[in-house]
Amino acid sequence: MERKKYYVNVGSGEISQIKYDNNDSFTIYATDDEVVMLRAKLDNMAVDANRTFFRSHVPIMPYHNDKSNDDYDAEMVEAYRILHELGDETTKQFINSIGILGDNHM
Q: What GO molecular functions are on record for this protein (predicted)?
């Protein structure tokens, strides 16, 4: 399959072939299937973020025992792993610099 250039903004969950405003936090080259996989990760992060928001309004549930927080973190690490794998050199360098993937990607 042909790889196409995409611009990704993790914060907004945007994946686009058109550079617009601030949607170019990361640049990747991906097949259609790889974009679908990344989209699923970003969508899962949004679902987990909503669950975490609602949990935050229940005072008897401590933050450190909240499965939705753990799920969000796991999805975020996986999304960054995909971005690192598909990203251009600038994307890879940035992800390496923040250390989210541990030492095995340096």
A: hydrolase activity
**Overall number of domains in the chain:** 1
- Which amino acid is residue 27, in one-letter code? T
Q: Which residues lie below 8 Å from residue 19, measured CB to CB, with a gap of 6+?
A: 7
Residue 51 identity (one-letter amino acid): R
Give the dihedral sign, CA 65/80/50/32. Answer: negative
| Distance of alpha carbon 33 from alpha carbon 49, whole angstroms | 25
Closest Cα to residue 8, out of 89, 99, 106, 80?
80
Question: What pLDDT is recorded for position 102?
Answer: 87
In a domain, 66, yes or no: yes
- Return the sign of the alpha-carbon dihedral for residues 53, 82, 64, 44: positive
CA 99 centroid distance within chain: 14
Domain span at residue 44? 32-105
What average pLDDT does this structure show over 59-86? Answer: 84
Determine, yes or no, domain membership for 86.
Answer: yes
Confirm if 82 and 34 have CB atoms less than 8 A apart. Answer: yes
